[in-house]
Every structure is written in structure tokens, then in C-alpha cells.
């Protein structure tokens, strides 16, 4: 099979690899498409230290079941069905202890991150049957690659405590911020304002139904006041740099909550009194629980029209290195670029934002 190998930082090459064989509890999946995550970009450049040369990345994926390990006995898992994979893989002996908080298991391995796993920028992968979710044939297959980032957002919204009736400020309208807007809508939250520097991303977020502002036009806190007549109850920082965390804190009411989900910088500084005297709570959010992932599967399975806008481009495996290079440079890409491993699906996307 063909796979996209991180040969060195800044260089992806297409290489031949042996087809993976499933362990008894695993499923072999022929990949249709896999989205490029911000964490893959940081892995490509080497700046986050969470990817190593030689590995095959990719964790936002959709594919088709090809074969089942000997002990897989799930009636819904048959060769030919379309599936997505929850990339957070726990050793079976940890499942009970970490039920409902799977991402807290120090023994977890994350597909696309753990270098020893052949991950989803390859024509085939294996994954434990437990981590495989069947998708309906009525759903456009490429939407399956949007489920993982949506699960990240579902967890962030849950961690933030945002509830219907709340006003929410989101810092950043990139792919995480876009998914956060959808996850807020899933949670019944309609008063949402998003701050984003890139005009093409502001256009996309506006299409999703949120109010958008350009941080160059003034303080986010004032824009939130103007839009809602009050400070935000909750802010979600989908960027994670000092400036966005400051904006998130300033935009949130006394006693409000700021959820930090973006990982733009490993070190942030903040105004201590914006937390202490203002009694704001800062919560962290990373990946998702099994239940969050299942919620994202269920919502995307309805084939929501909004999902189409999140896919900006589809490129074949031979165009992957150039696509990564463009995303590194900012690139003017409003939403996701999907690497399409099964060429039959290359023309499958007809979204309005296709370039
Ligand atoms: Zn990701």
C-alpha cells in the first residue's frame, strides 16, 4: 500500500509499505480520506515535539471496512461499510478504570500521534473494533473525516459548562473554532461571537451562523458587549496564545468560565487578577471521551448541510506535501484540507468553498 511518511521535518514523501494485518480484536480499514489537523502541521514543522521523523500521521479519518480480526463479533461491522475511527486507543485492561474519561488514561495511544502506529495518511490502517464507528450510507462519506475535530469541540463545549441561554465568545475561527461553533449549536447555544484574523475564515464562520469580528477592529470584550448587551458567560479559546487568552478572559463576565482548547503556544502569560479577583475559572480540554466521540458521530451521521462548508479542498496523496507546505505558510485556506487516499472520492466533494 501507499503511505505518506514524515521523512523529515518539513518533508512528506509517498512510500510503499506492507499492508497491515489485524490482531484478533482489530479491523482493517481501507482509508477514503483523512483531514489535516493543526497538530499535524505542527508535527510537520517539528515545533510541537509530538511527531517524529519516520512516522505516518493522520487521525481525522473515514474509510471502509476491509477485513475483521478473528475475534471481532459485531453485527454492524461488515466488509464494505463506511466507518470512522476514534483515535484514542486504550489498553483493554484500562477500559473500566477510565470509563467516561478515556483521555485521562496515561496508557492511551493516540492514532496519528503514537509513532509506532500506522495512522490514517495511508491507504490502510488497523484499529481495535471498539474504536470503530459505523456511518450511514446516506451521509456524504467525506463528512466522516470531520467527526474527530467535531468531537474535540464537543468536549470543549462540555468542559466549558456552556448551556442554552448563555452568551459565548470564541477566540479563533480556524477548523477548531469552526467545529466549536457547530458543537455550541448542537448544545442549543445560539448567542455566539467569534473573533478571527483571516477574512476567508470569518466568511466561513459567518456561513455557519455565528457573529464574526476582526480583532483588528478593537477589543473583543467591547464587541461582545455591543452584540449581546452583556459580557460572555463562557469563552472558548480555540487558538491558545497569550493574546487570545487575554481576549477570552476580558470578554467573560465575573465568575464566568474560559475553556482553553487551542494549543497555539506551550507557554502563556495572563493577568492573574482576571482570574483571582474576577473569580473566573479556566478549564483545559484535550481530545474527548468515548461519549463525546459518539455524539459527534451521531450528529454528523445526519449529513448536516453545514458540514460541507468545513471542507475547503481535497487533494490526492501526491499533493499532500504541497498542501502541508501551503497550510504552514498561512495559505488562505478557510477550512479543512482532506488528503484523499481513495481516488474514487477525489471528485466527491462539491462544497461551495472548494478551491
Ligand atoms: Zn486533530
Commentary on this structure:
This protein is of the alpha/beta class. It has two domains: 2-140 and 303-345, Alpha-Beta Complex (Quinone Oxidoreductase, Chain A, domain 1); 152-284, 3-Layer(aba) Sandwich (Rossmann fold). Helices cover 25% and strands 26% of the residues. The protein contains nine helices and 17 strands. Strands 3, 4, 5, 8, 9, 16 and 17 form a seven-stranded mixed beta sheet that branches. Strands 12-11-10-13-14-15 form a six-stranded parallel beta sheet, with helices on both faces. Strand 16 (311-316), helix 9 (320-328) and strand 17 form a beta-alpha-beta unit. The longest helix is centred in the middle third of the chain and has 14 residues, at 147-160. The model is unreliable at 350-355 (pLDDT under 50). The chain binds zinc ion. Zinc ion (ZN) binds next to helix 2.
Describe this protein with a few key phrases.
Rossmann fold, alpha/beta, binds zinc ion, 355 residues, Quinone Oxidoreductase, Chain A, domain 1, disordered C terminus, single chain, seven-stranded mixed beta sheet, globular, 26% strand, six-stranded parallel beta sheet
Concise overview:
It contains nine helices and 17 strands.
Strand-helix topology:
Layout: E1 2-8, E2 11-16, E3 26-35, H1 38-45, E4 60-68, E5 82-85, E6 88-89, E7 109-110, E8 124-128, E9 132-134, H2 147-160, E10 167-171, H3 175-186, E11 191-195, H4 199-207, E12 211-213, H5 220-228, E13 232-237, H6 242-251, E14 252-260, E15 281-284, H7 290-300, H8 305-310, E16 311-316, H9 320-328, E17 336-340
Parallel strand pairs: 10-11, 10-13, 11-12, 13-14, 14-15, 16-17
Antiparallel strand pairs: 1-2, 3-4, 3-8, 3-17, 4-5, 5-9, 6-7
Helix pairs in contact: 2-3, 2-7, 5-6
Bound molecules: zinc ion.
Amino acid at each position: 500500500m501507499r503511505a505518506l511518511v514524515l521523512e523529515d521535518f518539513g518533508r512528506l514523501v509517498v512510500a510503499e509499505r506492507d499492508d497491515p494485518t489485524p490482531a484478533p480484536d482489530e479491523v482493517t480499514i481501507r482509508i477514503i480520506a483523512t483531514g489535516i489537523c493543526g497538530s499535524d502541521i505542527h508535527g510537520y514543522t517539528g515545533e510541537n515535539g509530538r511527531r517524529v521523523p519516520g512516522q505516518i500521521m493522520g487521525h481525522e479519518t473515514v474509510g471502509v471496512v476491509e477485513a475483521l480480526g478473528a475475534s471481532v463479533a459485531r453485527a454492524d461491522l461488515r466488509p464494505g461499510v463506511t466507518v470512522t475511527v476514534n483515535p484514542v486507543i486504550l489498553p483493554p485492561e484500562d477500559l473500566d478504570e477510565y470509563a467516561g474519561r478515556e483521555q485521562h488514561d496515561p496508557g492511551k495511544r493516540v492514532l496519528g500521534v503514537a509513532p509506532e502506529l500506522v495512522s490514517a495518511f495511508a491507504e490502510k490502517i488497523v484499529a481495535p473494533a471498539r474504536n470503530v464507528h459505523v456511518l450511514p450510507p446516506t451521509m456524504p462519506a467525506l463528512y466522516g473525516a470531520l467527526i474527530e475535530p467535531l468531537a474535540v469541540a464537543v468536549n470543549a463545549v462540555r468542559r466549558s459548562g456552556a448551556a442554552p441561554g448563555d452568551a459565548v465568545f470564541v477566540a479563533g475561527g480556524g477548523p477548531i473554532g469552526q467545529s466549536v461553533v457547530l458543537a455550541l449549536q448542537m448544545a442549543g447555544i445560539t448567542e455566539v461571537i467569534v473573533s478571527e484574523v483571516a477574512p476567508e475564515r470569518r466568511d466561513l464562520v459567518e456561513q455557519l451562523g455565528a457573529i464574526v469580528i476582526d480583532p483588528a477592529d478593537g477589543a473583543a470584550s467591547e464587541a461582545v458587549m455591543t452584540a449581546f448587551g452583556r459580557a460572555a458567560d463562557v469563552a472558548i479559546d480555540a487558538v491558545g496564545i497569550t493574546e487570545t487568552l487575554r481576549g477570552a478572559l476580558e470578554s467573560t463576565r465575573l465568575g464566568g468560565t474560559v475553556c482553553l482548547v487551542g494549543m497555539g503556544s506551550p507557554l502563556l502569560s495572563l493577568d492573574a487578577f482576571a482570574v483571582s479577583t474576577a473569580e473566573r475559572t479556566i478549564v483545559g480540554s484535550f481530545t474527548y471521551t468515548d461519549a463525546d466521540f459518539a455524539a459527534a458521530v451521531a450528529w454528523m451521521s445526519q449529513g448536516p448541510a453545514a458540514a460541507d462548508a468545513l471542507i475547503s479542498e481535497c487533494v490526492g496523496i501526491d499533493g499532500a506535501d504541497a498542501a502541508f507546505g501551503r497550510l504552514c505558510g498561512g495559505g488562505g485556506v478557510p477550512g479543512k484540507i482532506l488528503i484523499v487516499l481513495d481516488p474514487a472520492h477525489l471528485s466527491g466533494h462539491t462544497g461551495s468553498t472548494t478551491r
